[in-house]
Every structure is written in C-alpha cells, then in structure tokens.
Design a protein that fits this description.
Layout (H helix, E strand, L loop, with lengths): L1 H27 L16 E8 L16 E5 L4 E5 L4 E9 L2 E4 L3 E2 L8 H11 L2 E5 L2 E6 L2 E9 L9
Antiparallel strand pairs: 1-2, 1-9, 2-3, 3-4, 4-5, 4-6, 7-8, 8-9
C-alpha cells in the first residue's frame, strides 16, 4: 500500500510539473497582440485616389483633372467627390474599423472609359479602412481595393 501511495504522489507531482512548464512557456510568448482601433477623425478630409486594386484599371494615364477623389466629413458622415467622370455625394456608416458607403447620388455625364465603373464597384464592396499617416486603405474584408493619399487642399466637386 505504501508503494501505491508513493506512486500516486510521484504521478501527481509529475502532472503539476508539466502544467507549470506549460504555463511558463505560454507566459514567455508575451501578451496577446492588441490591435488598436483606428481613430475615425483620421478619415476627415480630402483623399486623392492613387490606385484601384487589383491593378486592372490604371489611373496613372489619366490627366490630373480626371483623377478620382473624395472629401469625407466625419461629423456629418457624408462624402462628396469626383469619380473620374462624374461628381457624386452620399453618406456612410462607421463603427470601429468598419466603414460602409451607402448608395451615391451622381451626375450623369457619359463616360468613355471604365475608371468610374471600377471606382464605384470597389466603393460598394468596402467593409473596413486603415489610415496610416497620409495614406488611406479601403478594404473588403482583408483585401485592399482602393488606396488614397491625403490631399492637403480640399477638393470641391464642380458641376459641369
């Protein structure tokens, strides 16, 4: 009986040692990574489109006055801008890093290229955003769709 008691104590002591070792290893991994939520105020302002992704449509060949852009007013939750062909405006919903644009109202000038179609089709798919310094990334889940740079001078859409 004494040998069974010693075996049980040795067995239990081994379990406790293994459990302590696992907890020590997990503690060495450091704290869980904390993803900081973006500050919605960082969205405020004017943004010039740099890239439509994937790069199926090139905006680099467009004259500078045809580059799409938009102005975001975070307090009013409105957006207005230029699609490369037409002026547009609308509103959006925002929660944490989630951003969704509601349907836009736009002028109806006939367009001969597919820049506007590519721009609007990606805006409709936006679910998230990231702002890093003067760069705005609009994403559908984890896929980057539109890349913007902050414009220091506010653009004002013009009716043609």
């Amino acid at each position: 009986m004494e040998s069974a008691k010693n075996y049980h104590l040795t067995y239990m002591s081994g379990k406790i040692t293994v459990a302590a070792l696992i907890l020590t290893i997990m503690g060495c991994a450091g704290p869980a990574k904390h993803t900081e939520l973006p500050n919605p105020k960082d969205l405020n302002g004017s943004w010039n489109l740099v890239s439509i992704l994937p790069d199926t449509v090139s905006i680099k060949e467009l004259p500078k006055d045809r580059h799409p852009y938009f102005n975001i007013d975070i307090d009013k939750k409105t957006v207005q801008g230029y699609s490369g062909c037409n002026s547009f405006s609308g509103d959006f919903s925002l929660r944490n890093d989630s951003l969704e644009f509601n349907p836009f109202v736009a002028t109806e000038i006939g367009c001969t290229d597919n820049i506007e179609q590519a721009f609007f089709s990606r805006l409709r798919r936006i679910k998230h955003y990231r702002v890093e310094k003067d760069r705005l990334e609009l994403l559908s889940q984890d896929t980057l769709l539109l890349l913007f740079e902050r414009n220091q001078v506010k653009n004002v859409p013009t009716a043609d």
